[in-house]
Specification:
CATH architecture: Alpha-Beta Barrel
CATH superfamily: Aldolase class I
Largest sheet: 8 strands, parallel, barrel
Mean pLDDT: 87
Number of strands: 11
Strand order of the largest sheet: 1-3-4-5-6-9-10-11
Helix content: 25-40%
CATH class: Alpha Beta
Shape: globular
Number of helices: 8
Strand content: 15-25%
Structural class: alpha/beta
Distance between the termini: 15 Å
CATH topology: TIM Barrel
Radius of gyration: 17 Å
Number of domains: 1
Low-confidence stretches: none
Length: 248
């Protein structure tokens, strides 16, 4: 069995680091606040209106030369040329959003050039109010309901060459109340690929519950208080003590 991964996700708006998508920016925190030595992978996402800004490209360069783990980059990728720009500036993987709905061939084009292992498809999911086990994929930071089931979207993305799926629970994002286990378990059982879970982690028990109750490959946290070296070491020790096989 492959060992589980701990991934840090950093969301930037105009170069400012957010704690999570649901929180306002805190200007006390910058890229230099994060200790990168103990994590397994790093993900940075640009949610600015102005895509591919010099500031964000500089951030990619900074992290690609400052950490020694795979770097995934997302934000506004709508073409092979957009992906080329991120890879050229130091990305190891790219994160596709809902734009693949309008241009499903983008994953195929990127996969043909860089390999499917270089593509993560994000599924921003939210419960439909009439059924707690029924979810839809949303775009525009959770504002626009695409009326597509996460599993259907995921299978389509995989058929076009995506290598990994990121499941983000909009409902749990920023809540610190735990991951949406039913959502993650439901989707991961139906998709034959590595799955990353995001949204809701508030304490170490939430990570254990996620790995214990689902068969996903990795968990991702955006909580700023989880992003120091001491915290990541503490989390990994906690998981090993609870018999979760985690990378060192």
């Amino acid at each position: 069995m492959l060992k589980k991964r701990i991934i840090i996700s950093l969301t930037f708006l105009e170069g400012v680091l957010f704690r999570t998508k649901n929180f306002i920016p805190d200007y006390r925190y910058t890229k230099n606040f994060i200790d990168l030595w103990s994590i397994d992978e790093l993900m940075i996402i640009d949610i600015s209106d102005k895509k591919f800004s010099k500031d964000f490209l500089n951030l990619i360069n900074f992290f690609s030369t400052s950490c020694f783990v795979p770097l995934s980059v997302g934000g506004g990728i709508k073409s092979l040329q957009d992906a080329d720009l991120y890879f050229k500036n130091g990305a190891d993987k790219i994160l596709l959003g809902s734009g693949t709905i309008n241009n499903p061939l983008i994953a195929n084009e990127i996969s043909m050039k860089y390999g499917k292992q270089s593509i993560i498809q994000a599924l921003d999911c939210k419960k439909n109010s009439n059924n707690i086990m029924n979810y839809s994929v949303y775009s525009e930071s959770g504002k626009n309901n695409l009326n597509i089931d996460p599993t259907t979207f995921g299978k389509t993305a995989l058929s076009y060459g995506v290598g990994e799926i990121l499941i983000n629970s909009i409902d749990n994002d920023g809540s610190l109340l735990g991951f949406d286990i039913p959502l993650i378990d439901k989707v991961s059982k139906e998709l034959d690929c590595p799955i990353i879970a995001l949204g809701g982690a508030g304490n170490w028990s939430h990570f254990f519950e996620l790995f214990d109750r689902t068969d996903i490959s990795a968990c991702c946290t955006q909580n700023i208080f989880h992003l120091t070296e001491h915290s990541i070491i503490s989390l990994k020790k906690f998981l090993r003590n609870h018999n979760i096989k985690i990378r060192k």
